[in-house]
Write a structure and sequence with these properties.
Largest sheet: 5 strands, antiparallel
Shape: globular
Helix content: under 10%
Oligomer: single chain
Low-confidence stretches: 1-26, 74-82
Radius of gyration: 22 Å
CATH superfamily: YVTN repeat-like/Quinoprotein amine dehydrogenase
Length: 441
Amino acid sequence: MSTKRTLLLVSLLIIVGLSCSTLSYGYPTFYPTGTTKYDPEKASSGYILIPEGYVGMNDPGYKSPEQKQDPSKRDLAWVVKGEKSQEVRLIDMNGNVVHAWTVVPNFDARARLLSNGHLLLVDEEINGEIVEYGWDNNIVWRYKTKGTPHHDVHRLANGNTLLLVDEHVPEAYLKDIKDADVPWWHIIKRKGIKLIGDAIYEVTPKGEVVWEWHTHDYLDLAYFSPVVPNSDWTHANTITPLPENKWYDAGDKRFKPGNILFSPRNFDKVFIIDKASKKIVWEWTHTYKGGMSHQHEPIMIPKGMPGEGNIILFDNGLFPRHRDHNGVSIVFEFNPVTKDTVWKYETYGYSNQKFFSKTKGSISRLPNGNTFISEDNNGRIFQVTPAGDIVWEYVNRSDVSRAIQYPYDYTPQLKAMPRPKELKVTPPNNLEWHLIPDALR
């Protein structure tokens, strides 16, 4: 191996090591879970749906069954079969569980609360299907997908379900694929590799496919991310239908309600798919601090919310092209017509990793103008004001999978519940708060 290639490989390993260092170095071993800060006067309050990940990961004393038998083994909780959470919880702002569903064990289960109180879940790992649970936890609908469902699902206004699955790119599309010579990476093997793309399906309650869209028909097969496995071509994670919006009202047909805001993570871009023609009619990325870096959850802010019509997204900061974006997540809000950034949330400081979710995350705009952020990999969920002040924060017992906040009266079942007491939580001053030695307790 040449000296130049050796230096490039070492540089890559350093970058990857830094980007993965949050759980190892960014946080203390012991820290409180539950609601750690809450200012009811400044926060926008409601219920938070939390699809959980690996419940053992935030327990510093956890030992897997393999470790108990052989202490030399360093298996982590989240690679041990059976440690995946089987629960999706609904909590109030003080962290009290107001309802829960027992679901199939899942590492990355995307779940959405429907307005009738049902739970719509992506069962990616066990049965490969979309499952709808009733409020009382019984299964009321399920759909076995053509490929493996993953990352996102929506119940549409017409009662149909929009879902995302992965699929192999047909052989006929691969014949012109060539190996690529990429700066820093040199030759990337692509010829002869079976590529995995994505498909979007709309299905009726009876399971009839009434609309479908395939990445290999509309995206450039020569475009790829050199930092992921060669076969992992698009790795989509979001398929959000556009809501009613001022841009379409003003005559811009690209933003027709129902068109799909689509996020193929490995492209570091987001697109809008015209539902009628199936053509891509809009795309966006950015160049801030080296550009977008494996983003999640682009959504258009609906009418009636501060910033309505703008798009917000979670830019993870995985494999960026600038040191200041390495291991640092950023939330962007931008005008989709001018494509100008109008607001962003990020943290600062030398060697800053105060806000980072490597592989998943979600955001939404709240009625009072605050932004809800789910820092999934670390199990931290919080709200920030337009000025960037944290007014509510919750640390989960595990990682989470794209938590979502809902209004108190979102479902008939929630509306019938007594409204929870909103008790202010003031955290201690970290500069002065210390644990007391056992002997002095």
